[in-house]
Write a structure and sequence with these properties.
By secondary structure, the protein is of the alpha/beta class. It is built from 4 helices and 9 strands. It has a 5-stranded mixed β-sheet with strand order 5-4-3-8-9. A two-stranded antiparallel ribbon has the order 1-2.
Length: 181
Amino acid sequence: MSHDLYTLPSDLPEPVDDGAADHLTGLELPELELESSRGDVNVRELEVLYIYPRTGRPGEAPIRGWDETPGARGCTPHSCGFRDAYGELRALGKRVGGLSTQSLEDQIEFAERSGMPFPVISDPDRELGAALGLPTFEIQGQVLYKRLALFADRGRIVKTFYPVFPPDKNAADVLRWLRER
């Protein structure tokens, strides 16, 4: 598979719905301040929160087995989909954030390189995951979040998008759901 971070390969393996996010709808987002590319963010103040395993860096090889792991590849196109939909989401009055377990340094690098107009949040200790029971997977000794998106109304999760596939279409799915709501 190609290692172009911005393009999805045609043979990307599709994740299956393992039910690991079924419990999220109806839960309250915690009052949780985390560091982001735009300063500290309280996740409870976001309406649209998409969660992804990790973005890559240009010129760096991916984790061994990354492209073959269902749901792993596609974090950059996933994020860029939300970047490109940001104007429409803001026009609907929605606050947006992206979150992974990556370091703040990695999140800032990615946000600057990819022109993210919203906070890209760092949760290296998986605090949000512990509070909500977010689905994770392990690869090469790293525990990462599985890809999903949440919509919250006044702090309560009312819609979960999981599994997300293809990742570059998730923002469009969220927008379609919001318009139909």
